[in-house]
Amino acid sequence: MNSLVGILVVVAGVLASIALHELGHLIPARRFGVHVPEYSVGFGPALARRPWRGTTVVLRAIPLGGYVRISGMFAPARPGTRVTNRRSRPTLAEQARRASSEEIPEGARAFHELPASRKAVVMLGGPAVNLLICVALVAAVLLGIGRATPSTTLQGVEDAVATASGETIPAPARQAGMRAGDTVLSWCQTDTPTWDDVRGAIAASEGAPCPVDVSRDGDPVELTVTAVRGADGGWVAGIVAGEDYAPATLAQAGEAVWELFTGTLGVIARLPQAMWDVAVSTATGAQRDPAGVMSVVGVGRLAGEITATGAAGTGAAAGGWRQTASALASLLASLNMALFVFNLIPLPPLDGGHVAGAVHEGVRRTWARLRGTPDPGPSDTARLMPLSYAVAAALMAMTVLLIVADVIDPLTLT
């Protein structure tokens, strides 16, 4: 039941992110006078549709994306442009031009008639919304919930510890009577206001019996703990720090967004190799890269694990509602940053491909104006339709591969 909550949160978050992304295209297009006949969240069969101010709003069955249909996306072919193939049928580009022009109602403005700058605004609107969502979620996590820092109030006391000699013995803190919820005030007569102070005092004890003052339910308790040398060579007592949450600064939140941006850029730069690795691991049963890519299905599974382990009080999501909420919000922030960066790839039918077409058009028209030559008109982006179909097919194949991998060999928190 708890894992279902996490899945539902992510599904709702993904749908909201998609819906707001498409609004980022729809609103500026309509403000510039361009007709938008359809606003769709999801792909596949329509589950519900409703007209709204000249636009049909559609909810579809497969929540893996969305789109807005904008009238007049493609300009008519220039004189002399070949519009039929060897079979005397319209080319893919010409079919796109005709379909685009048929959707323009009387009195409305075609998208291709917009200045290049406004075309760029319309196409950048979607990714910009995802970036804003990401920034808002990061701010909510770091400025609202706060950053988790180790606390001197113990989350737990271990039953046993592994020693340098290879033995497993009862944890010294457990033997001394320490409990989860105790707040360590001093160790070996050294005040311990921070968790680093506790660790330093344990290390400085070098295995000697130490008086330890703790606060338990508001009452002072004095214990004696003898640390032992652990398997890693350091001195250990078998205690587990709790967590405090303190708001981060605006600068730290900005750094977190920048790190998320650069990290996402790195993942996308390695995307071909990452997809190959996923294909190999899926086919051979080899272990997947824990830092690799995943589908929305994989993200949903992780969200389910976060809420399930958080409710159980164990694992990466332990620590109460703050850590669970922080993990889910961070997951959605990462997803929105991925949508922002990925959609800026300058290939059609991605938003970045349309932006590249607008930039190309703007440069050509500016150069013509500076030279005093005739306006070359809008770019004939319909000629890129074969590339659009190829990129769309590649994206579909990637999506299917990742979903299969996330079902057969999912990435987990552990």
Automatic annotation (TrEMBL):
<feature type="transmembrane region" description="Helical">
    <location>
        <begin position="327"/>
        <end position="345"/>
    </location>
</feature>
<keyword id="KW-0812">Transmembrane</keyword>
<dbReference type="InterPro" id="IPR036034">
    <property type="entry name" value="PDZ_sf"/>
</dbReference>
<feature type="domain" description="Peptidase M50">
    <location>
        <begin position="11"/>
        <end position="366"/>
    </location>
</feature>
<keyword id="KW-0862">Zinc</keyword>
<comment type="similarity">
    <text>Belongs to the peptidase M50B family.</text>
</comment>
<keyword id="KW-0472">Membrane</keyword>
<keyword id="KW-0482">Metalloprotease</keyword>
<feature type="region of interest" description="Disordered">
    <location>
        <begin position="79"/>
        <end position="100"/>
    </location>
</feature>
<feature type="transmembrane region" description="Helical">
    <location>
        <begin position="387"/>
        <end position="408"/>
    </location>
</feature>
<keyword id="KW-1133">Transmembrane helix</keyword>
<keyword id="KW-0378">Hydrolase</keyword>
<dbReference type="InterPro" id="IPR004387">
    <property type="entry name" value="Pept_M50_Zn"/>
</dbReference>
<keyword id="KW-0645">Protease</keyword>
<dbReference type="Pfam" id="PF02163">
    <property type="entry name" value="Peptidase_M50"/>
</dbReference>
<protein>
    <submittedName>
        <fullName>M50 family metallopeptidase</fullName>
    </submittedName>
</protein>
<feature type="transmembrane region" description="Helical">
    <location>
        <begin position="120"/>
        <end position="145"/>
    </location>
</feature>
<dbReference type="InterPro" id="IPR008915">
    <property type="entry name" value="Peptidase_M50"/>
</dbReference>
